[in-house]
Design a protein that fits this description.
3 helices, 102 residues, 4-stranded mixed sheet, single chain
């Protein structure tokens, strides 16, 4: 199913040494959406760029959105666009809240 699926592009600043951050985020998306995602591309740039596009739509921009997304945010952004009904398990649970045991 992945062939022809959505394409994620992470544009990152080489001057800022954001390659490892970008590669880690790409790995997380590929691990979670291995059957749904068609491609993940890392696009080197300069000038403090850090942008994430899904099928050409800007879903995260470091300057606009105030920094970098955490992996939870990134996975939710991707999920909301490619498979809104999918449960991401613990990522979708409120942090610090554990179910009560009776």
């Amino acid at each position: 199913m992945a062939e022809g699926g959505p394409s994620l592009t992470i544009a990152y600043c080489t001057q800022c040494n954001w390659l490892l951050r970008s590669a880690w985020m790409a790995q997380e998306v590929l691990s979670t959406f291995s059957l749904e995602i068609g491609a993940v591309t890392l696009l080197p740039g300069t000038g403090g760029i850090f942008e994430i596009h899904l099928d050409g739509e800007l879903v995260w921009e470091r300057k606009r959105d105030g920094g970098f997304p955490d992996v939870k945010q990134l996975k939710q952004l991707v999920r909301d666009r490619i498979d809104p009904d999918r449960d991401l398990g613990h990522i979708d649970r409120a942090s610090g809240n554990s179910p009560e045991i009776s």
